[in-house]
Amino acid sequence: MKHTFYTDPKGFFTTTYNGSVSLEENRFIVEKMIEMVNGRMEAGKKAYILVDLTNLGEIDPGSLIYNAKALKEIPVEHIAAVATNAAARTIIQTIINLSGESKKMRMFGSREEAERWLLEEMAV
User: Fold this and answer.
1) Structure pTM?
2) How far apart are the C-alpha atoms of 39 and 34, rounded to whole Å?
């Protein structure tokens, strides 16, 4: 699969988008992440996610609305989004604005910054 989702050895979930993303692909990824987060929550643990858009191509506009709705509902502490170009930053900012979840999701210019923030939040 060109897009990946997994549990990072550092303890947070990671989703990496590579290339273009259809609405179907995006829904599948988000639903799998929600399953993983719910499993963590059922075990009495907090969940954190890193979303890497470094290699994102085009994305179906419907995905922005879908992701904004999911962001409101997903029981996650924080999401760090890596956006290294203007298009990715616009996508992330649109999702944050549509969801109203600016405290839950933050945007970073590098994966290192995003990981550092998540690790700091996990230590609190």
Assistant:
1) 0.93
2) 8
Contact 81, 67 (CB under 8 A): no
Q: What are phi and psi of 71, to 5 degrees?
A: -60, -35
Give backbone dihedrals phi and psi of 104, rounded to 5 degrees, phi first.
-85, -35
pLDDT tens for each residue of 3-50? 999 999 999 999 999 999 999 999 999 999 999 999 999 999 999 999
DSSP state of 89: H
CA distance 85 to 78: 22
Residues whose CB falls within 8 Å of the CB of residue 2, separated by 6 or more in sequence, listed in order:
18, 19
Q: Provide CB contacts within 8 A for 84, sequence distance 6+.
A: 53, 54, 109, 110
